[in-house]
Amino acid sequence: MSAEADDPEGASTRLDPLLHEPARLTLLATLAPAEYVEFSALLRLVGVSKSALSKHVSALAEAGIVVVTNAPTDKRVRRIALSEQGRRSFDAYLRRLEQIVRSARGPVRPAAAEHDGGR
């Protein structure tokens, strides 16, 4: 039985388009190891305009992927953090991406290993 027969819609082979957009992927990768990141820092790290970053953050917040809060000492400073759902979604996205990469590389062939000097 083929994989297509098991998954006629191909859902297991798709990457979540909400997370896969390049600027959002960079934003999520920046947030993943952190408790939170301030909007101004994200602006520098993601490398998009303020309005574009606001739109990306809003879309992710509406989907429950990120949480936006104000800093306790300065209400003008916005902090962005991955929600628990966001962490689970991003982890699942990364696992699927890793599967795709492994599949694309295929099995290591002995002839290829010999050609590379066994590396």
Please tell me about this protein's structure.
With 119 residues, the chain is mainly alpha-helical. 56% of the residues lie in helices and 10% in strands. The protein has helices spanning 3-6, 17-20, 22-31, 39-46, 50-62, 84-105, 110-115, and strands at residues 37-38, 66-70, 78-82. Strands 1-3-2 form a three-stranded antiparallel sheet. A hairpin with a 7-residue loop joins strand 2 (66-70) and strand 3. It is elongated and about 60 Å long. Mean pLDDT is 84; it is low at 1-10.
Summarize this entry quickly.
The protein is mainly alpha-helical and 119 residues long. It is 56% helix and 10% strand.
Keyword list:
119 residues; mainly alpha; three-stranded antiparallel β-sheet; 3 strands
